[in-house]
Amino acid sequence: MFRLDLGTARDRPGQPVTFEFRKKLPGIEQLEEAGTAVGPVEVAVTITYLEGLYWLEGTVDGRFVTDCARCLERVEIRFGTKLAEKYARGGPGADTEVMPVEGDFIDLTEKIVESVLLALPMKPLCSPDCLGLCAECGQVLNKAACDCRPDGIDPRLAELGRLLNPDKKGVE
Ligand SMILES: [Zn+2]
Ligand SMILES: [Zn+2]
């Protein structure tokens, strides 16, 4: 759990109070079942209390280990996301962007999980010009060429062709 105690911030209005965590993220079983591992996340947030509102700002950093969408090799992808929220006792009131606080704590876990899920690219790539697999023989084309291209098109150009004509089915 990523739990923030609001007491100190409330006792010192206008002064940011810092919280730091480095730990494994709960609630990402779906990702893990899909073959994406998430390392421990580093979370650094400050909370500033001002006129009834708790202003939260911070960063979440970590890494995914997942499969390249083209060549299926394991690939490590670092991510860094930002958090910015407002909280208040009693909830939104007139300002609908304000999140409710119950008791003296904020549990940030859900927000962090949300931001990490959003940080995962739809198509993770080991490199922007990954050549992928040969559609014919399955050769990993980053490692070696194969003899399946009778038209002799350079795979990099073929990739460019796919980008320019996204409707055509590629190797992915
Ligand atoms: Zn790749
Ligand atoms: Zn081939």
UniProtKB/TrEMBL annotation:
Q: Name one Pfam family in it.
A: YceD
Q: Which InterPro entries match?
A: YceD (IPR003772)
Q: What is this protein called?
A: DUF177 domain-containing protein
**Annotated organism of origin:** Desulforudis audaxviator (strain MP104C)
